[in-house]
Each structure stands twice: as C-alpha cells, then as structure tokens.
Amino acid sequence: MLSSFRGHIRSATVEVHDAGHLLALIPLIKQFPNISQLEVVVENSRYFERTLYLATFRLLSTLPFYDNLKILDLRWSGYYEKQYRKGDSKFAYLEAAEYVPNGKTVEYEDEFSGLISLPEPPYKVRNSEKKQYKFRLAQYVQVQRDFLGPYIREKKFIGRLAEIRLPKELKSLGLSIQHAEIHLLPLINCATLDTLILKRAKELKHTTNPTNPTEILQFPAIKTLVLSPDTDKITLYLRKLTFQFPNVESFRLVGGFVCPDADFNDLPNFPNLRHLETFWPIDRGVINYEIEDVEGFLRFRFRYGEWRELRSVKFTGCADKLYPGSKEHRHKSLVCNIERKDGEYLFDWTTCGW
Q1: Which H/E stretch holds residue 296?
Q2: Within a domain: residue 155?
C-alpha cells in the first residue's frame, strides 16, 4: 500500500520531543524519494543549539533527496515554557539547581497540581554552560551522545560551520533559532537561496565577519526576507538591514509586538522593495492612526526617493481600520495596493483573509 503513493509525497515534517531522538526519526523519511520541502522541529534544544545545528545538517545530507530540497525549515524550541510539572526530566537541570533564579532556589508554587513556574531572567548561573551541556548530554544513550557530540564553544563552532553543505536546489531557509546570526555564515556563498525566514530571536544581531566583528557581511542573493522576532527592540537592527540584504524585494516584519521601539519611518529603505508586510504604525502620543495617516507616511518615503518600486503594503489583522466595528473583518488583514500614475501615487485599500 505504501509503495503506491510514496513517490507522490513532496512535503514532510519531522518533530521530536528531545534533541537526542532526531537520529532515530530522520531515517524514516528516506522511503519518500521526492520530498522537496522539509520541516524539522526539535523541542528541548536549549543546550544543544550549536551541536544540533551541525548534527542536523550532517544527518540530513545522508538522505537521498537532500540535494533536491527547495524549502528547509529548522525550528529549535524549548525556550519559552512558563511552567513545568514536578519530576519532568526535561527540566531536571532546574531541580539540580544548575540555575539559581534571581539568587533563589527553585520552589514549588502549587503542590496540588505539581506545576512549577519557571524562573524569569536574569539568572544567576551556578554552573558553567559547558557543565550544563554535559549534564543534559549524560541523560542520553551512547548513540545519541555520539550524534550530538561534545560541547563546543562559539569560536570553534564558527570554524566548524564550514562543514555544512547546503542542498544544491535550496531556495528557502527558515531558522527559528536563538542566535541565528552566527548560523547564517554557511549562506554566504549560496547562490540558489533567495528566501530567508528568521523567527524567535530574543535579540536581533547582524551577521559579521568572524575575523573582523565590525564588518557586516552581505547576502545579495536574498530577495524575500521574513523577520518574526520575540523582542520589541528592533530599531538598531533595522538601520543596517539594507546593507546586509541589499536586494530584498519582499520584506515581512511580523510578530507579537506589544510596542516596537521602531516607527514606520524606521523601516529599511530596500531600493528594490515591491511588497511589504509590517505592523500598524504606533505612537504613544497618538490614540490611533487612521488610513489617511499611513498614506501620509508612505508619501513621505516616496518624496525622499525611497520605496520607488513599492506596490503593496499589508498590515496583518488590521482590517477594522477600513471597516470599524465589523465582526466579519475582525481577524482579516488590511492591504494597501499602490499605483503610480502621472507622477502621483494612488492608494487602493482592501482586505484579505490571511
């Protein structure tokens, strides 16, 4: 039965609860030879961000369809849990007092449910990062320990990134990794990749030359850039984004911003930008910006020679700006289509369901 349709499978998701289990699961998808889109989700990857990155590419490169992959999405999770249950081995490092939150030992908040609130940063780390890594690694069997490998420091990790060979046909790479700026180094010489998706970073940093940290590296092949950080502090990063990605045509800045420290005029001036998706402008001194205000912001950018190629702007979940009080449009997005005619810019506002 399986042989009759395995050749028709084009997309797959591999999701494991623990980093050490990836080794056993990945080989199972070898039986689907025509996969071109692959998502790998690893929970509880807190300590293994570097070694897991190297090990994952090393493992994926053994797959028969590896060079035919066009879309690859790597998601390392395990950073954002708010509670855990007493006795959960996944959080044994806390009960072993490897972390001393705010100078205190871990305490049970609710003895009845057995749930324990995870400490909020900043942490006072009792043991070194290397000792924490070894503590977690020791919980695996030998074959899993061999797969992940010993702890490596950042400097050595940067040197070992040269081992990574990206799929020959790769067009899109998604990384949900805390320190993705370092992990981007293998992309420098990748000419096929034109879409980059970066999510979950709690601090945005530019990718720099390992031998000269003041030199920001460029990724001229990237045409579509998606940022979805877990931070409101984005202004400094945006200011040099045009230099790092000079040929972007589609830019999405999305995420759960409560109050980003950037305003609409801080968005990068990509010279070839055609499609933009971003947050609705916010100003603490203004109760609520209207559509006319946003048109004014756009005209301001056009007046100074910016975004000359821009054709559309999407504001996710903002359809109520066009249809106030409408329940039908409450969760829809607002789209501004832009046309230049006789030297003037014309705006056509509509909604979409995505």
Answers
A1: helix 291-303
A2: yes
DSSP characters over 184-207:
TGGGTT-SS--EEEEE--SS----
Q: How many domains does the chain have?
A: 2
Q: What is the pLDDT of residues 119-153, one digit of tens each?
A: 544 444 455 678 778 877 887 889 999 999 999 99
Report the pLDDT averaged over residues 207-211. 90
In terms of average pLDDT, the best of 3-7, 68-72, 180-184, 252-256 is 68-72
Better-scored residue on pLDDT, 299 or 325:
299
Same domain, 65 and 205: no
DSSP assignment letter at 169: T
> Which segments within the chain are labelled E, that is strand?
11-16, 37-42, 71-76, 83-85, 99-101, 115-117, 123-125, 172-176, 195-199, 208-209, 212-216, 224-228, 250-253, 275-278, 312-315, 333-341, 344-352
Q: How far apart are CA 89 and CA 46, in angstroms?
A: 14
Number of H helices, E strands in the chain: 10, 17
Do residues 157 and 8 share a domain? yes
Q: Answer for the pair 340, 293: CB distance below 8 angstroms, yes or no.
A: no
159 and 213 housed in the same domain: no
320 vs 69, higher pLDDT: 69
**Global confidence as pTM:** 0.84
Describe the chain by its helix, strand, coil percentages, rounded to 5. 30, 25, 50
> Could you tell me if 134 and 218 lie in one domain?
no
Residues spanned by the domain of 291: 200-353
Are 167 and 234 contained in the same domain?
A: no
**207 and 283 inside one domain:** yes
- Answer whether residue 110 shows pLDDT above 50: no
- Give the domain-ending residue among 135, 152, 181: 181
Whether residue 139 sits in one domain with residue 240: no
